[in-house]
Amino acid sequence: MIDLETLLKHTIPKHVLHHGLFVMQAKLEPIRLLFEQRRVPEEGWKDDVIDFLFTLLSWMDTDKDPKGVRIGEREARVSSPFVSKLAHGFCHGVGRSGNITAPQPKAAGTSLIYFFTNKLALDMLQRAGAPNLKSACVLPLATGMTIGLAAAVAGDDTRKREVVYPRVDHHSPLKGMQLVRMKVKIVDAEISGDAVRVPINKLSEAISKETAAIVSTTTFFPPREPDDVKAIAKLAADENIFHIINNAYGVQSRRIMKLIQGAIDAGRVDLVVQSTDKNFLTPIGGSIAASPNPSYTEKVSKMYAGRASAAPIIQFLAAILSLGINGYEVLRDEQERNRHLLEKCMKKVAEKHSERLLNVFNPIAVAMTLTNHEAKKVGYNMYTLRVTGPRVLEETDFGICCRKYHSPYITMNAAIGSTEKDIRLATSRLDRALKQAEK
Amino acid sequence: MIDLETLLKHTIPKHVLHHGLFVMQAKLEPIRLLFEQRRVPEEGWKDDVIDFLFTLLSWMDTDKDPKGVRIGEREARVSSPFVSKLAHGFCHGVGRSGNITAPQPKAAGTSLIYFFTNKLALDMLQRAGAPNLKSACVLPLATGMTIGLAAAVAGDDTRKREVVYPRVDHHSPLKGMQLVRMKVKIVDAEISGDAVRVPINKLSEAISKETAAIVSTTTFFPPREPDDVKAIAKLAADENIFHIINNAYGVQSRRIMKLIQGAIDAGRVDLVVQSTDKNFLTPIGGSIAASPNPSYTEKVSKMYAGRASAAPIIQFLAAILSLGINGYEVLRDEQERNRHLLEKCMKKVAEKHSERLLNVFNPIAVAMTLTNHEAKKVGYNMYTLRVTGPRVLEETDFGICCRKYHSPYITMNAAIGSTEKDIRLATSRLDRALKQAEK
Amino acid sequence: MIDLETLLKHTIPKHVLHHGLFVMQAKLEPIRLLFEQRRVPEEGWKDDVIDFLFTLLSWMDTDKDPKGVRIGEREARVSSPFVSKLAHGFCHGVGRSGNITAPQPKAAGTSLIYFFTNKLALDMLQRAGAPNLKSACVLPLATGMTIGLAAAVAGDDTRKREVVYPRVDHHSPLKGMQLVRMKVKIVDAEISGDAVRVPINKLSEAISKETAAIVSTTTFFPPREPDDVKAIAKLAADENIFHIINNAYGVQSRRIMKLIQGAIDAGRVDLVVQSTDKNFLTPIGGSIAASPNPSYTEKVSKMYAGRASAAPIIQFLAAILSLGINGYEVLRDEQERNRHLLEKCMKKVAEKHSERLLNVFNPIAVAMTLTNHEAKKVGYNMYTLRVTGPRVLEETDFGICCRKYHSPYITMNAAIGSTEKDIRLATSRLDRALKQAEK
Amino acid sequence: MIDLETLLKHTIPKHVLHHGLFVMQAKLEPIRLLFEQRRVPEEGWKDDVIDFLFTLLSWMDTDKDPKGVRIGEREARVSSPFVSKLAHGFCHGVGRSGNITAPQPKAAGTSLIYFFTNKLALDMLQRAGAPNLKSACVLPLATGMTIGLAAAVAGDDTRKREVVYPRVDHHSPLKGMQLVRMKVKIVDAEISGDAVRVPINKLSEAISKETAAIVSTTTFFPPREPDDVKAIAKLAADENIFHIINNAYGVQSRRIMKLIQGAIDAGRVDLVVQSTDKNFLTPIGGSIAASPNPSYTEKVSKMYAGRASAAPIIQFLAAILSLGINGYEVLRDEQERNRHLLEKCMKKVAEKHSERLLNVFNPIAVAMTLTNHEAKKVGYNMYTLRVTGPRVLEETDFGICCRKYHSPYITMNAAIGSTEKDIRLATSRLDRALKQAEK
């Protein structure tokens, strides 16, 4: 924008100036590359570069125009500089009343942010294992809300109102679908050994002529296993109904992303929904709707009524810029190592306390029986030992996804972003928690 | 928490220390008062005090525990310090999957923030003119989305799916209601002199046994006038149906708040929805659902599926803390003066260019005919003159709220937060814009 | 540096992008102008623009080079991002070991900052009333230290070690001169009516063949009056000795700057030293050495041994950019009004309590007798009433600048940056303080 | 200050509130410990805790008093929030005109900061290897300036003006001593094998009855070796003169700190001066004067004329809080490993290019001959290869510390804060630089 070399002539010695501009250029290079390539960078960015990019783009919004006059009822006015800082200057929000991804003429900068966010979200999902996804849209909504919007798209498209839902005991997706008035037909899971699964034939049976969609799930606490999304994709194709995958925290796992890739290749997958925070280490508040078919993500984006907070958008963009592809893969490697370690450590604890690990497929979490302990007390002990995250369930609690499980259990996660220290400390505290909760 | 007087003994001279702690106490006093009174402060806070409060509260969330171990799939981990800063440390979001206003055990600080936000939102609405409102809930959603949630509450409660809607040509509320599958029966407005109004008898006629609710509107561009919410409230009471008021940017206006107070007193008002940004100078992204009946705001808050971004919540809280009651009243005084000035200035311009002001009740905006000018060109000229916000409509455009209006027109706002300079510059540029668009 | 128009093609609609870049350009315009004109801007800058400029320039320093390798013993490494933030990224300090204003090859950005700082400091002093100053250097040192350096220059140049010093009872300048081993010959002031002045003939007598310089003072608490710098300049010219003016907080006053301009025109002035914080509302820590003769400021700048903190430099630059010429003149107008008001208010208080104002020339402060009150108690009362800044002196205290004054007194300032509210509150509290301290 | 448990009753559920306050307490614990123990923490602090401490303390300064009235000529007023932020709110500077370490009554917070800074500086030096140091004072001045102040103390105390100075070719200390008018008698170094040293007998001979002090040096570029401070300490004791050690970047080295400890035990050491940035990873701008005798650091602190910038003080405090003792020891371990690695890598490069390492004692840097290369070109090549810090000298350049050295050479540092990557890259680029500079 400004030719610094010329402007700064006769200030400091030429060779010092020249070297300084050279360094500045090197700092700005990631931004140039982003604009040019529109992909997630290989190397993560330093915080100061992200901050700079955001400042620069926020200066394209009309509320920054020093000679602009603002005479509308909504002009991104703020009550104090601190309030603006809370939005990093992106005060116009994203979208227009008709479409949340539509560029907002008053806010060129925010619109660019959102453009790059969606581009990079797709790039990230593709490189994370599902190259057959073809469009993505980051929404400033909880995963459950976005599943609701996705279900609404299915409902509008098919003019049917029923969703077949392999049982997952989680309020949010259910509430999301109910909000948009879909009738959810829950199909109970069954126990097979230790695993809790919904058999494909039961799903098949549940489909009626009123069925608009199946909503399957890839990530939940063991012993509930991921749904067989490939089989469900084939079923959906056969039945000509929508297939929405709730991939809440599946992006972190190479194995789960492979399942999704396989499902798309093998049958029908219309929308895949995932959390930004659970997969990409952002503050809670966003989700990504992705699809092998761009028209579906567009339909989802048109469901949102009004302009929305830009905060979850910029938080997600900042997060993936700071990670970069390499950073993300490093985290995934670490996640896999930690999952391994968690199993090893929990097994030792289990043996010591006459419990056993549940034999279930789950690339993120591990579950252990609590047959000989007071389950609720174990949970309470963990909390007072400052361990957050473990879940303790008894045989008929909400959460087991079936009628009755064979024993109480505790689950712990080796989720992306956890450290080896977390795993070691958590399992050693589990040891203590069990000691104090023997029956 | 820490007794500084004792801890800091034998550091600097006693009287200097003492005076220093006295000053610190004076800086902290607004925080103490907020915790004690739980009301909007009389005087607005300085930014540094708000910042400090937020830091302190964010340190109550479990992700800050230096000795905590985090083993869940969702633990507010972030990819870099900058990402955390974008959320001011409130990385857990608000709410639980069952209820967005439910305290989140992992996030005591964010839960407190949300508690105070809702308390202060109600206090603000009451002191802004509607003391008969009895509960409020700030949602991280566009006004249109919240109107949708409100309509869904009406639908669930009445088990009916129809909404009678005095026509307002704005996509968001419509889309919000459609998202939750309410059938919107739009009642066209009629022209009466210059004013565009929906007669109460037409609304009455539109009500059927399928009607769950009427959704009325207090703020829109002239010549559309505010709905007669008092008469509608009586009608709703008579018909035993819900009455939801879209009070999008009405809080800024004492007159409109008086209308709402009157409506509540006279008949039935179940939910009043308003924008945070349009009324309280926050970044776009939030809305407030308020009600004379706490059970309705609670039902609205339970509609949200999942945990949501805390950003719109903290932005709103920061905004009203920085304003204070006095600051807000100063802004309202200024708004009224500016509205007056806008009318005076536009009148002059109109006379000069052989146009006239539309004779319509509207406490925020002013409209002027464009009979002798190329309307679209006037709009374009204003944009290139760096004026954002004016709206130019021709006789049958979406926006007129009736079949056909008698002439094209332009509207401009004297909204809260606008300055006298904005008004003067905008009207002088309008003068220029007209000159270049004579027919 | 980056051609955004081309790089961002096919992102958001062309006209939105275009308008966005137009706004960005408008935000960047002050920076371009600064680089081009190298003068204090007419209009003060917004904080975000100053912040941006600083970030951009700090990215020219070698410690920011992403591919640089740093193998020296001093490479601006910092222990944490917060530490870097405390320096706004200018971690290399200013200067080289030989000369504090010499460009530092490792730090092109900091060197540019310092270049502009000194340019703007001179421009500011010239436009503030002394256009006959021809060079300026901002030093990260207290005014007293810089007076010491200036005296050292006089000592080196003349090869004499004595300074004649019209008595001002302030430790710092004295200590500064003693540090560099100048022998200070203090000439007592005398009382003339209420005024305390050093007669020119006494100064003339004090000069010996050992005298290197006279150090005069323009600003001190009344009843001490500003030295007659014009007469001293003539004396210095006649005697062929240095004349250093301690203009500590004189820049704020148009009248005092006029005196300095007159002194330079009429005789000999070698160096004029002023505080950055007292004149330009920066944090304490800097001073400006200025001269009608560039070689003298250069000699001062070569006195500093080593590289110095960049903090006082960037704080000063930020301050004058945020003020602008217009902002500074507004503050000076306000200072003049406040000085007037202070006199008026104090006079009322004085009459009420049977005291009187001292009849002394001082464009910033006002003094009042404390004949009928316990002076020390008045001082103490003011402190407990939370008034900082007033000085209370008894007849023979250090501070009176002469052998014995005719009565105790209190002085209060209407300094630049004070508000009308400060003046009104301070004098009303003075009223209270006097009541409780009657003899 | 505020009892949150009681104040926040009836907000969120009791157990959530309780846990939240527990986490907050854990975050605040380092601050409590600092206030109580007044020592460098074992574990480094997180940036947010340092930031919080600084905010809290800055709120003790009178300029923050919301009901205070400021009527002095110097009240820490600032022109904009950004300017205040540049000082992190510590706008009063440190010290009083009489003594830079004296508490400033208007600035209790800054005074506390300075109190802790000096306490922790001493603690750090003691634990870094010199427990026989008994007081320390951090000065916002370059090391060279502080050596000047130290020499001035020696001059005043002994009433003599000569300093004997084992030759080190560095401008700053020389200029510092000259500024305070000490006569520097430089004693040339001699070559012994590869090493450049000043023999103790030559120093002994140089001492005259005019000698106030010897100023020795522990850290410089090889082949100049550290002075034998123990022998010099004995000599100083015998001759009853001051001994000032310029320990510029010696704190990082356990071996050098051992030399200092030994010197203090064996003879006379009055003041030890070190850089904050070179040892503790702060931005450039501060130095520490330490002494086995508290009266000497006090005398140094009284030399500064006026109030000074608080910036170098808070930067240093932030740096050591962020490091902690453990963090510092980790850095020192790394420094030692890197020094080792540097030697190994340079040796390889030397052999490849027919040069050899100089056989000299130096725990930080390594030197290599440039007999068969164009020395100046090697230096230039390194610069264009983006390596900063290496020094290239020819036989008679300023820097060799003796009459003539036996060959040209290049030195590179493995200083504290350098990474293994720095060492490897620098030496591999040296390889390239040599290739292109063969004679």
Tell me what the structure shows.
The structure is a homotetramer of 439-residue chains. Chain A has 439 residues and is of the alpha/beta class. Chain A folds into three domains: 1-37, no CATH class; 108-325, Aspartate Aminotransferase, domain 2, CATH 3.40.640.10; 327-435, Alpha-Beta Complex (Aspartate Aminotransferase, domain 1). Chain A has helices at residues 4-7, 14-37, 47-58, 81-86, 108-127, 143-158, 171-179, 200-206, 229-239, 254-266, 276-280, 294-301, 311-352, 375-384, 420-435, and strands at residues 69-70, 135-139, 162-166, 183-187, 190-192, 195-197, 211-217, 242-246, 271-275, 287-291, 365-369, 387-388, 391-393, 409-413. Chain A has a seven-stranded mixed β-sheet, with helices on both faces. Chain A is globular. Chains C and D meet through α3, β1, α4, α6 and α7 of C and α3, β1, α4, α6 and α7 of D. β1 of chain A pairs parallel with β12 of chain B.
Brief write-up:
The structure is a homotetramer of 439-residue chains. Chain A is an alpha/beta fold and 439 residues long.
